[in-house]
Amino acid sequence: MKLDVITLDAGKAGSIELADEIFGLEPRGDILHRVVRWQRAKAQQGTHSTLGKSEVSYSTKKIYRQKGTGGARHGSRKAPIFRKGGVYKGPVPRSHAFDLPKKVRALGLKHALSAKANAGELVIVETLDLNEAKTAVVAKAVKDNGWKRVLIIDGTEVNENFARAARNVEGVDVLPSMGANVYDILRRDTLVLTRAGVEALEARLK
């Protein structure tokens, strides 16, 4: 697959050949769904918690005598049936993460990249190098290229000036190639890769 390469100011910078086994697949929704679920489950904090019968603060004294009251027999106000009693089998802090094979994770990333390429939402830029960390420069580049909600992926390291300048631009996310993931790619309207980013991703996924 061959795509044109542009500069940040929307100029032409030649073309690039993309590997078909990474950018030319027929996207499979089931694989993308599995990887996104794995990512979101891993990101859950799992800090939800309730107090059980042994944890609520209450007297342990028997609330009334066993027999002769005409009511049900009870020994503790901490029982779940009472107001302010402990919760029965309530949520406790835990990890929501589950295992997903590395091959499936890698395949999911390939399908996400292919989905963007097939939809015409993949853009290749020459470089992100900026001499100064000026937000106005990045904002102008985003506007000139017609990007709305965009994820920009660079090589092993993101140009520091560009990363700092892009922080204040709404709808722009910047990641190094190792941070590329299915969820962030799919949730943005446009995916922008640098030449270095393409090389790093192909080296990672081949």
Fold and architecture overview:
This protein has helices at 20-23, 29-43, 102-118, 135-145, 160-166, 182-187, 195-205, and strands at residues 2-6, 12-17, 122-125, 150-153, 172-175, 190-194. The protein has 206 residues and is α/β, with parallel strands linked by helices. Strands 2-1-3-6-4-5 form a six-stranded mixed sheet. α2 (29-43) crosses α3 and α4 (135-145) crosses α5 (160-166). The longest helix has 17 residues, at 102-118. The chain is elongated and about 95 Å long.
Looking at how many chains there are and whether they match, the oligomeric state comes to single chain
Shape: elongated
Count the strands? 6
* Main sheet attributes: strand count, strand direction, barrel closure: 6 strands, mixed
Spatial strand arrangement across the major sheet: 2-1-3-6-4-5
Proportion of residues in extended strands: 5-15%
Structural class: alpha/beta
Fraction in helix = 25-40%
**Average pLDDT level:** 92
Any idea what the radius of gyration is? 27 Å
End-to-end Cα distance = 16 Å
Count every helix, treating DSSP H or I runs of 4 or more residues as helices: 7
Order of helices and strands: EEHHHEHEHEHEH
Which residue ranges are poorly predicted, with pLDDT under 50 across at least 5 consecutive positions?
A: none
How would you summarize what this structure contains?
By secondary structure, the chain is an alpha/beta fold. It is 34% helix and 14% strand.
Give short descriptive properties of this protein.
alpha/beta; elongated; 34% helix; single chain
